[in-house]
Structure formats: structure tokens, C-alpha cells
Design a protein that fits this description.
The complex is a heterodimer of chains A (106) and B (163).
Chain A (H helix, E strand, L loop, with lengths): L2 H9 L2 H12 L5 H5 L6 H13 L3 E6 L2 E6 L2 H32 L1
Antiparallel strand pairs in A: 1-2
Helix pairs in contact in A: 1-4
Chain B lengths: L2 H5 L1 E8 L3 H9 L1 H4 L8 E3 L6 E5 L2 H5 L5 E11 L3 E8 L3 H5 L3 E10 L2 E9 L4 H7 L11 H14 L6
Antiparallel strand pairs in B: 1-7, 2-3, 3-4, 4-5, 5-6, 6-7
The chains are: A mainly alpha (106), B alpha+beta (163).
């Protein structure tokens, strides 16, 4: 699996997307804090976090005795650069031009 | 440890196919920092207690930004592994008024790749926190994920997103 594969695989699961959304809302959380948001065993949450870490979407840092989980948006940014820009750029810029023209006329 | 600290720290990580020295140069050498992302000339005095300055590009000055858009103090300077500094931006009076934020770059090379981890501690600086987390790519909005993805692209392919 290459890096993109890992990111897509990690995102292809509602629990893992939920965990990313939780970290987006409040970053730097412990396993226990994340576990309390889910109806799932500690081991289950750990496995999901592991997939997210392998994809680089979650980065952990030690702070005192605690291991904190942080959302790392860079892999998503790279996919955005690689795929989304390529397919949407032309259409979006055409729409933005149209918007500008219509607003100037108004 | 307080909850506020964890809430106000942001962590970014990227793997770049380049040596740690090359990544270090791209972050600390004023000639290199002008080649990707905001293309701002950045000067870091290579010692603890030294100053850090990022200068406005001609385009930025055209928008009325000050000569020095970001400044700070070097706390640790350990090439090519670790740079710790304060970081305070001056894109607006409101941003200038916030307390200095703390930035840590950690570089670790293995198997032809360098893992670059950036930890930004933003205690008491909500405007800075919002700015560096931004996903915008145009104009003044791009945060760390845009800057680091552009750095990766630049070092691996010689091309940047803006070019």
C-alpha cells in the first residue's frame, strides 16, 4: 500500500471519520477521552487509532504520563493537491469568474 | 497539564523524500524559504537567543503589510534535527497583540525520507490558531498544512503549488 492507499483506507470507515471529527473539534486527546465518545471496547478504539496513525492522519505526542492524539491534516491536504485540484480547478474557476461577472453587473 | 494547553496545541507531520539537511535548509536558509509557499525571506540567527524574522514579499508590501510579517526568538537551534522558536505574526494589529506562540520543528531521517513534525503551541493566541489551521490556499489564508505540502512538493519535484 502506498501513502494515498493508507489514507483512503483509513477514511473509508465511519468510526475513524468520527474520531477525526472529534479531534478536529478538540485536538490533543487521550485514548480514554476518545473512548468515552464511542460505544466500543478500548481495544476497538485502539485498533482504529492505529489505522489512523499508520495513515499519518493522527500523530501522538507524550505529555507527562499521557499520550495525546492530534489530528494531522497534511495527508488530506496532499490528496487534495494531487486529486481534487486537478479535477475541480477549471470548473471552480469558471464558476468564480461567472460569480464575479454577475456581481459586477448587479 | 491543563486542558487549555492540549486544546491550543496543533501538530503537523509530513514525510519528505529528501535528507534532513535539505529539509533543514529549506526551513532556515533565507534563499530557500523564498522558493515555496509564501516565498517570504526568513532569517534565523543560528543560536539560542537569536532572532527570527520573516520579511514581506513585494506583493505583501503592496497590500500594506509591514516589512517584518513574523518575528520571534530562537530557543533551541540544533541542525538538522530540532529548531524551537517563538513565532508572532504581524498581519494585523489584532495578531500582533496576541502573546508569542511557540513553534517546534523536529526532523528525523530514515530510509531516504525525512519526517518533519511541527508542533505549534498557541496558548492565548486564538487568532494565530485559526490562521495556521486554515485550509485556504489562495492569498493570505494558507496554514501549515498548505505550507508543508508545498514544501514537500518543492523538495521532491522542484515544483510548487503556486508555480
Amino acid at each position: 500500500m502506498n501513502d494515498d492507499d493508507r489514507v483512503f483506507k483509513a477514511l473509508a470507515d465511519p468510526t475513524r471519520r468520527f474520531l477525526l471529527d472529534e479531534l478536529f473539534a478538540r485536538d490533543g486527546r487521550t485514548l480514554s477521552e476518545l473512548e468515552s465518545e464511542l460505544e466500543m471496547t478500548r481495544f476497538g478504539v485502539m485498533k482504529h487509532l492505529r489505522v489512523l496513525e499508520d495513515a499519518g492522519l493522527v500523530v501522538t505526542r507524550k505529555q507527562g504520563r499521557e499520550k495525546l492524539h492530534f489530528l494531522n491534516p497534511v495527508p488530506i491536504r496532499l490528496i487534495h493537491n494531487r486529486w481534487i485540484d486537478k479535477y475541480t480547478e477549471r470548473r471552480v474557476s469558471a464558476l468564480l469568474e461567472l460569480k464575479d461577472e454577475l456581481e459586477e453587473m448587479a | 497539564m491543563t486542558m487549555t494547553q492540549t486544546k491550543t496545541t496543533q501538530v503537523y507531520e509530513v514525510y519528505i523524500k529528501a535528507s534532513a539537511q535539505k529539509v533543514w535548509d529549506a526551513i532556515t536558509d533565507p534563499e530557500w524559504t523564498q522558493k515555496y509557499a509564501y516565498q517570504s525571506r526568513q532569517e534565523v540567527e543560528p543560536r539560542a537567543g537569536g532572532t527570527f524574522k520573516a520579511f514581506a514579499t513585494d506583493e505583501m508590501r503592496g497590500f500594506g503589510l509591514p516589512e517584518v510579517i513574523i518575528d520571534g526568538e530562537v530557543i533551541e537551534y540544533d541542525p538538522p534535527r530540532r529548531l524551537v522558536q517563538t513565532w508572532n505574526s504581524h498581519f494585523s494589529d489584532e495578531l500582533s497583540a496576541e502573546p508569542p506562540t511557540r513553534l517546534t520543528y523536529e526532523l528525523s531521517e530514515s530510509g531516504g525520507f525525512t519526517r518533519l513534525t511541527l508542533v505549534h503551541e498557541l496558548e492565548g493566541a486564538p487568532l494565530h490558531a485559526e490562521m495556521v489551521a486554515s485550509q485556504w490556499t489562495e492569498g493570505a489564508g494558507g496554514g501549515w498544512s498548505w505550507i508543508l505540502s508545498d514544501l514537500k512538493s518543492f523538495l521532491e519535484t522542484g515544483k510548487t503549488l503556486s508555480s
